[in-house]
Write a structure and sequence with these properties.
15 strands; 5-stranded mixed beta sheet; 9 helices; alpha/beta; Nucleotidyltransferase, domain 5
């Protein structure tokens, strides 16, 4: 199973992303990833609870139906179903939430060139860095550089049971997940390789990831999870709980396990027992805004320290959108960054996108369609 954005071969021409807020799907006719058709289906609150524990897909029927509806629109398969039945499964690239995976940088003095021999060594290194069993995870890696006797690589790991949940809703929708990518890595695959470094933020109400990429090389990937996937075994009722998590840097190149900020996070609460849902949602959005602003501030400081220059723009993916993020940054006193969407008009066929599918939602699927 592919869980990195750059591989040999051609990915499916359909892509779908599962987010806590909803499902978005897109179609492109070739590797240039000019989006020809897009679709979005919103999900009820709590239908998807991204995290590293089983129970990400809380309402399987609802999520699978939404995936099917979105993919049928972009594939044109809805009419085919009515006329000829389901037919064979069509391949799609599946984009999963960043909160469901771990992305880490690793250094090796040497590494076998054959993936079959290198993967066990990568998995062994991950044992001490992952908050889940590395032996029971889907692991993939990509060599970022090999110079001065040091091999630097990017590793991605997803708990197998969690990955199977996301794959199951795609299979249940009548499609076959041919590749799987974490959201931000998928979005970054849509960027052109330019010498100028880019600062990227992928934000939604439940999580935010910041990244820095230069000339196709990922320099920073930092995720903050603002939702609680506290289920241990069987799925449980999801409540509005805010527990921001922040990556701890275990070395100059490795970002290790996440930890809660404070004994109760940022004001942990049960919305059903303490306050009306509307008030809980408003507090949750304020918490999200604070965490997004903090994440961008930290990433901008890392950008300046590492590259000896200040970022001049912030590329935006995710459901909060550039306009909202610009307002969040202004309210937080963060100035000097131009905020713009990663997906621009030139990446879409005329008429492909409507107001019902904002451009921020499309960064992940657009990158997933680009080879």
């Amino acid at each position: 199973m592919e869980i990195l954005p750059k591989t040999l071969g051609t990915r499916p021409r359909l892509a779908v992303e599962v987010r806590a807020e909803g499902i978005v799907a897109a179609r492109a006719e070739d590797a240039a990833a000019l989006l020809t058709t897009v679709a979005r289906v919103d999900l009820p609150d709590g239908a998807v609870a991204p995290g590293l524990k089983v129970g990400n897909i809380v309402d399987t029927f609802c999520v699978s139906a939404a995936v099917r509806k979105a993919l049928d629109v972009v594939s044109g398969r809805g009419s085919e179903r009515a006329e000829r039945g389901a037919g064979r499964l069509r391949d799609v690239t599946l984009v999963v939430p960043d909160s469901a995976a771990r992305v880490l940088f690793l250094d090796f003095d040497q590494l076998p060139s054959k993936a079959a021999e290198a993967l066990p060594l990568v998995r062994f290194r991950l044992k001490k860095l992952l908050p889940f069993d590395a032996d029971d995870a889907m692991v993939s890696y990509q060599v970022m550089s090999n110079e001065k006797g040091t091999i630097k690589l990017l590793a991605v790991a997803i708990p197998k049971a969690v990955l199977e949940e996301y794959e199951a809703v795609v299979l249940g929708a009548g499609y076959l997940p041919g590749a799987v990518l974490p959201s931000t890595l998928a979005a970054l695959a849509g960027l052109d390789e330019t010498p100028s470094p880019s600062l990227v933020v992928n934000a939604g109400l439940g999580a935010v990831t910041t990244a820095i990429v230069q000339a196709g090389t990922l320099l920073l990937h930092r995720s903050v999870d603002m939702s609680a996937n506290a289920n241990v075994s069987a799925p449980v009722t999801v409540v509005s709980t805010a527990i921001p998590l922040v990556d701890r840097e275990s070395s100059a190149q490795e970002w290790a396990q996440q930890e809660a900020l404070g004994p109760e996070g940022w004001g942990r609460f049960d919305a059903d027992d303490v306050m009306p849902a509307s008030v809980a949602r408003e507090i949750g959005m304020e918490t999200a805004a604070r965490e997004v602003a903090q994440a961008v501030s930290v990433a901008a400081a890392y950008f300046e320290d590492s590259l000896q220059t200040v970022p001049d723009q912030l590329l935006v993916a995710g459901t909060l959108g550039a306009e909202t993020l610009s307002a969040v940054m202004a309210e937080s006193g963060l100035e000097g960054l131009r905020v713009r969407e990663m997906v621009d008009a030139g990446m879409m066929q005329a008429g492909a996108v409507t107001a019902s599918v904002p451009r921020g939602w499309l960064a992940g699927v657009r990158g997933a369609l680009r080879n």
